[in-house]
Amino acid sequence: MINRVLLLIYIGSAWSQSVTHGPICGGVSDTGAVFILRTDTASIVQIEFSSDSSFNNSLFSDTLNSGNDSDNWAKLHVSGLQPSTRYFYRAVLDNTPGNTQRYFDAFPTPGSVMNFQFLTGSCQQAGGDPNSNSGLIFPIMAQENPAFFIHQGDWGYPDTTDDEQGQPGNYFPLEYSRVQASYRSRFDNVFPVQDLLAVTPVAYLWDDHDLVNENADSTLPGIPNSLLGYQNMFPSYPLPAPSNGGWHQFSYGNCDVFMLDNRAKRAPNLNAFDFLLPDSVLFNPSPEHTILGREQMDWLKQELISSTADWKFISSGTPFNPGLRACIEVAVLAQAFFDTISSPFGVFQPIDIAIEIADKWAGFPADAHELINHVIENNIPNVIFLSGDTHTSGIDDGRSSLFPELMSGPLDRTNSQLVSFMEELGMYIWNMGGHNEYQSDYGNAYGRIFVAGSDSVILESVTENGAVIGRHVVQNGYLPPSRSAVIGPQRLNFGDIEVNGSPGIQGFLVVNTSIDTITIDSINISGDSGYLVIPQSLTTPFDVQSGGKSLIAVLFSPTGGDTSNAVISVHTNIGEDVVYEVSVTGVGIDAVSINNGLQHIEQFTLNQNYPNPFNLITQIHYYLPKKSIVKLTIYDLMGRKIKTLVDKEQQAGFRSIQWNATNDVSEQVTSGIYLYSIMARDFRKTKMMVLLK
Questions:
Q1: Which residues 6+ apart lie within 8 Å of 631 measured at CB?
Q2: What is the pLDDT of residues 425-444, one digit of tens each?
Q3: Strand, coil or helix: what is 283?
Q4: What is the fold of 485-589?
Q5: What is the fold of 118-475?
Q6: Sequence ranges of the domains in the chain
Q7: Predicted TM-score (pTM) of this structure
Q8: Is the pLDDT of residue 537 over 90?
Q9: Please, are residues 518 and 543 in contact by the beta-carbon 8 Å criterion?
Q10: What pLDDT score does 592 carry?
Q11: How far is it, in rounded angstroms, from Cα 493 to Cα 170?
């Protein structure tokens, strides 16, 4: 840890007034390194470095003038290092060496097999967050003696110049001076992150907030300035396409690390959705909907196939886990059942959850599928994902994520509790721990990766209190499975359902997340009676194509006034030991007169169709508290319009309409699961029904 007293003396001395930021070390290899520093006035600057802490037999970097046109930043390179050697370094201004020294270890020769560890993390220093700007985690991380530290973005939140100041579109990188200011904040010499940067080199690439704005994509202005600032004010590795994005690669011993830019070339997130109504969506991304862009994807695929390293780490600002695709689809499905969903940070509409999760790789399934297919088809072992962005931590061994994945954070933010929130909703996609529903410590955390030579890699999530809350060991030879699925939600609660009344109806989804077709061999129910399972195909076995999904409807018809619990088991061709389970619960209540209930309605209402399931004809009831223009439409599960039942102005009161299982051209539709949706004034509601012929 930096000696705070010495640091204050350093800042207060006459010489130190000239060094305002740094020096910071990065871009390290087995023979060289890169440094960045800033002075308060134009100075002749160098980096002095030596394997001796007394700086005997020193070597020096190139010399630069930190002129005012660069905001007095200087980026310096050193060469001639000896592999696996510790070097002490300090800034030299106008031929006068500084009083404070730092150190780093030169990387081992590429291909060297050894034991070492490095750290990851994301999300820090956000104005307005009461749990940010303390940096208490960084002195703890510094004690780990990491070989290097990967910062995965949202390093500072400079995107406060637009919406937060009432100026939409006034993105911070539109003015290069604001990009420069963001690096002054990032490398503040007093903030505790300096404790970590003083003892290890740093690799970094932005996410959304430190590139342009929240959920940034390639269409936003200002990206060229952020890219220029990165190259001028960060000790970066060489970029393969410096004018197009920040992606790059570096090596440490028998490991290759691929730093992805999942912002500068991504398509807008909302392009993945079809808006059926203003507040109702269908997830329907095109094959061209990309998170990386063609140039970066081709680069990554070529680098992976050319790599001879034992371990291949892919660092992504946003999580890869394809299980999140099921979360998107479940949120879309939830539009049929819930107006709002409660979370630790408020109440949201299902559409809000779907759109937010679509900011991750799961919102770009074509890119995810292309990468998975490339790794499997070319037999590229030991690919591991490292990610951030979500302000929380989770680890998956590959069951949902396909590639083992460590999602780490936040370093210095309020914890989003996203993993715990998803688990409360029945979505279990991080199976090896993290900030899950069993945790009580929802504070800050970092990722710790221990490479045990060529034998294994240990992924851990560590809190700022030193507790390990998630852990997984990846054995050499790991390949992602060619058949994989995520099922969700894995908990269904029907609440109160009238005995001998219309059955309650909910559903869960099977989402194929890998490259081969999966077969649902059978679906079994154990436990209390009253539950009926109806797959979208109506019979088993049935197939789910790669990238596809299938809905399983669950009906609850209580036979008595008790709580009924059951477990639904889904068996597939993924493996005999892979059984997916969905727990269901509901309560039967005594029937109450429908008319008595309807007498007290004072708001727009859409009732469950009756009968349901139905054969050929079903009745849909709804209530209008005031005269309204009403549109009532039938859709299939792909979001395609089947039939418009009502499209006109109607007087207030109770209304009903029959559907005879035909489309708009009077053709009979096939058996299956359908959605019906009403729109009247500001009222929107969607429900699900089952046609059985």
A1: 644, 646, 647, 678, 679, 680
A2: 999 999 999 999 888 889 99
A3: strand
A4: Immunoglobulin-like (2.60.40)
A5: Purple Acid Phosphatase; chain A, domain 2 (3.60.21)
A6: 19-106, 118-475, 485-589, 605-691
A7: 0.91
A8: no
A9: yes
A10: 56
A11: 45
